[in-house]
């Protein structure tokens, strides 16, 4: 419901507002031509990209919070942002002729970093704490490298900045087509991980006693989470807080059972990003805010509020 | 039957030395000893949560190294010490996870699974709270849910690591009586780590006393639980008087 509403808002509002009747007519193929163009060439693909980005980020965050047994886990900490960011920045600055490779670059960077962090954390099995620590350290290192590259190529840095702050400006059918297969595969696989995610909540020893290979399950879920986040980052840039805040909110409302938590997080994340992007697009019209900035502005205070509320109730 | 043959385990300063021991089928064995004597470690070795440096552990004459995790989970269930809070699942769902060793990852419970889940909940007396969230239950009720989950694994062997911790005396006795009943009705082999010597004597067929990673005594509670043992193992000066199966431990200085 909320998701549908955010789709409608995303299509309707903007520099030129389009009433609902016109939208419906456009979808039937007999609307005003200008509206047709705006809807199908600009707004619809952008809203769809926003939905997918949000869904992937939220699913990724929900899975990670289960695996790490840490409510603060977020795609950011497993190196997705830093790894994806570094490779994306290198693609944009050093090989600027090949900028169409940017999504692929971000994706590969995210994936490699995740595997590297997992290997670094490995010592007779990788405990969640070690993974988080390795992630934090890698994030710092990769962030520094990223800044280094940006300083060296400071004459071309403009395009990078918008990507880094997580904007969906100019996202089109091309981007949608790029991420759609990955997003669909990732989201489908995440439904296969529901039972594993629930078992994780019972504790490592109990999972082993139930005959499961806990290390293998954990690795599978982390790879899946990084795959999802990498998919989102590759097209959406560095959009933070969705993976952290959305599963949290859903957990407060419907509990931590992943049979409900995961699907609702996916819907919630999709709605949030699509809605926030519409707001970011129209708020300071004609200047478009990158949606990542807006989400951080909403997300950070909201997160602090959650922390305080929990402390009071605990 | 569980056989430990010359089992040794070392981690840091702590070690279990040359443990040679049998837990007979259909009996309740209690493992007691001071803090840090290796009681929990011994249980974890049997459950393959950690692996021995030396020696072998046999379940039904077959080394546990030859069991896959899944197959072991069909022979042996264990209640680990409760460290973290319970997850936000309903009672029935929690018990249902005991069926995991028998299920494919994506399949949900079949008729047989559901019958076993119903049975496990009935035996432990939690059927009426089936839909409640485990988090909202009292400590005694949560312990019964965890036992039901272990029972749903349909194993012949049940290991328990300090099952009475955090329970008041009423719930402690209730829990121990439930375990005795499971042992007698379903011929389950039960091995548990206990802190309370009284319960070990009252409910166990035999006792194993550990100290500093070594076995210092094994046998019938009545034969080994005495003033001499308390002095040697717990550095406690006390008399032990048995009233039937129930021991009264009377400290001479307090």
What can you see in these coordinates?
The complex is a heterodimer of chains A (314) and B (254). Chain A is an all-alpha fold and 314 residues long. Helix content of chain A is 76%, strand content 0%. Chain A is built from 14 helices and no strands. Chain A has helices spanning 2-12, 20-28, 33-67, 80-93, 102-121, 128-152, 158-164, 173-192, 194-200, 204-209, 214-236, 242-254, 258-282, 291-313. The longest helix of chain A has 35 residues, at 33-67. Chain A starts with a helix and ends with a helix. Chain B has 254 residues and is of the alpha/beta class. In chain B, 33% of the residues lie in helices and 28% in strands. Chain B is built from nine helices and twelve strands. Chain B has helices at residues 39-46, 69-75, 91-96, 111-123, 139-152, 169-186, 197-203, 221-224, 227-234; strands at 2-11, 14-23, 28-32, 54-59, 62-63, 76-79, 157-161, 189-193, 206-211, 214-219, 238-243, 246-251. In chain B, the strands form three sheets. Chain B has a six-stranded mixed beta sheet, with helices on both faces. In chain B, helix 4 runs antiparallel to helix 5. In chain B, 39% of the residues are buried. The mean pLDDT of chain B is 91. Chain A binds chain B through residues 69, 192, 195-196, 198-199, 201-203, 205-206, 208-213, 255-257, and chain B through 47-49, 68-74, 76-78, 80, 83-84, 87-89, 93, 97-98, 100-101, 105-106, 133, 153.
């Amino acid at each position: 419901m909320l998701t549908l509403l955010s789709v409608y808002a995303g299509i309707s509002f903007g520099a030129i507002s389009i009433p609902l009747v016109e939208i419906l007519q456009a979808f039937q193929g007999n609307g005003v031509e200008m509206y047709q163009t705006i809807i199908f060439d600009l707004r619809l693909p952008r809203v769809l990209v926003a939905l997918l980005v949000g869904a992937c980020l939220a699913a990724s965050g929900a899975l990670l919070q289960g695996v790490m047994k840490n409510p603060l886990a977020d795609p950011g900490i497993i190196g997705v942002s830093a790894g994806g960011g570094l490779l994306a920045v290198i693609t944009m600055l050093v090989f600027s002729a090949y900028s169409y490779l940017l999504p692929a670059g971000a994706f590969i960077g995210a994936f490699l970093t995740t595997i590297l962090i997992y290997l670094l954390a490995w010592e007779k099995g990788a405990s969640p704490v070690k993974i988080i620590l390795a992630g934090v350290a890698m994030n710092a290192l990769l962030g520094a490298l990223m800044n280094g590259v940006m300083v060296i190529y400071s004459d071309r840095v403009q395009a990078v900045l918008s990507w880094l702050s997580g904007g969906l400006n100019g996202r089109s059918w091309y981007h949608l087509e790029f991420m759609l297969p990955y997003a669909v595969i990732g989201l489908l696989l995440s439904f296969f991980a529901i039972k594993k995610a629930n078992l994780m909540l019972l504790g490592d020893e109990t999972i082993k006693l139930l005959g499961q290979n806990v290390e293998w399950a954990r690795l599978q879920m982390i790879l899946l989470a990084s795959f999802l986040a990498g998919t989102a980052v590759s097209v959406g840039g560095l959009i933070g807080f969705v993976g952290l805040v959305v599963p949290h909110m859903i957990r407060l409302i419907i509990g931590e059972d992943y049979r409900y938590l995961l699907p609702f997080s996916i819907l919630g994340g999709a709605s949030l990003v699509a809605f926030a992007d519409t707001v970011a697009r129209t708020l300071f019209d004609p200047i478009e805010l990158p949606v990542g900035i807006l989400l951080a502005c909403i997300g950070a205070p909201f997160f602090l509020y959650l922390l305080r509320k929990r402390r009071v109730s605990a | 039957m569980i056989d430990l043959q010359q089992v040794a385990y070392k981690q840091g300063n702590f070690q279990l030395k040359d443990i040679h021991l049998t837990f007979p089928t259909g009996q309740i064995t209690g493992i007691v000893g001071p803090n840090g004597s290796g009681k929990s470690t011994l249980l974890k070795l049997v459950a393959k949560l950690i692996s021995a440096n030396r020696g072998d552990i046999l379940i039904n004459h077959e080394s546990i190294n030859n069991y896959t995790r899944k197959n072991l989970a069909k022979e042996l269930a264990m209640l680990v010490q409760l460290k973290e809070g319970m997850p936000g699942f309903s009672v029935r769902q929690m018990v249902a996870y005991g069926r995991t060793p028998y299920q494919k990852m994506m399949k949900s419970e079949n008729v047989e699974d559901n019958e076993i889940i119903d049975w496990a909940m009935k035996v432990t007396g939690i059927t009426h709270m089936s839909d409640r969230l485990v988090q909202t239950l009292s400590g005694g009720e949560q312990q019964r849910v965890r036992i039901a989950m272990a029972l749903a694994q349909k194993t012949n062997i049940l290991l328990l690591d300090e099952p009475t911790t955090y329970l008041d005396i009423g719930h402690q006795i209730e829990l121990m009586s439930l375990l005795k009943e499971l042992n007698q009705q379903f011929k389950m082999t039960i091995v548990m780590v206990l802190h309370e010597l009284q319960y070990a004597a009252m409910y166990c067929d035999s006792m194993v006393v550990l100290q500093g990673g070594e076995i210092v005594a094994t046998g019938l509670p009545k034969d080994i639980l005495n003033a001499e043992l308390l002095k040697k193992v717990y550095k406690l000066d006390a008399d032990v008087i048995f009233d039937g199966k129930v021991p009264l431990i009377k400290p001479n200085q307090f």
